[in-house]
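Action item from last week, closing it out:
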Amino acid sequence: MHFALVVNPTSGKRHGESIATRAVERLGQAGHTTITVQGADAAAARDQLKQAIDAGLDGVLVVGGDGALHAVLDHVADSDLAFGLIPAGTGNDTARSLGIPVKDPEAAVDLVIAGHVRTIDLARADETYVATVVASGFDSKVNERANAMPWPRGNMRYNIGIVAELSTFKPLPFTLTLDGKTIERDAMLVAVGNGSSYGGGIRLCEGARLDDGLLDVVIINPVSKLKLLRVFPQLYRGTHTTIPEFERHLVREATISSSGVVAYGDGERLGGLPMTTRVCPGALRVFAPPAPA
């Protein structure tokens, strides 16, 4: 098979390039050919990938995390191309949900070589494909604040953003239209999940499945700031679903609106609300272990 290998060299504490080199060697030993796509910027990489697809490919492999995956979804969704993910990022929520080893790049490459392809759903937020979660509210405001900080880098910047945002945050008025039914809520946040987690293991949409043809809309209704701080660690364990403020709906389409609120998908900034997210059943063919029974 002939693959394009899309490389984010800064992934995995700048180990992305070395991981890609080992992947190319391993694929070559198994009889596969590759072309490496690594533009000077995201636009250049997308142009290179489009040219490679037009020239003829069997699949696209990404070395990176959820952000790198997000950048190529428009090229591989709803196509005959098989997609492979070699985790090298900080989030890796899609890989984790699919059972792709997140700390063993060689094992991830071996899944591609084994050739088992699983079909999963994607979400489409307005015109943008999303693999994991479309989030808006407290967490997206934290992202906006953290992204504006020149220092520090990494998760510490996000943690500082949480503390800073919490000092002024108040529940936000949301209007949600879920499969045609409109409801209104004051809420801490609203998330539309194709997968269960985002942001490096925040299991906000615990229970969401990648192949059920449905989106999980999760609402965290108003809680005190103290309780929000207590609940936040539960999001990494998926145990927050037992709190009375947790609300969940299974839908095929969700339009979320709240004035001045920005949505993030796969950890990337999507734009301001309102935003309509639809499920795209079976939109991605991905190298992964079989789905659990």
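Closing note: The first helix runs from residue 11 to 14.
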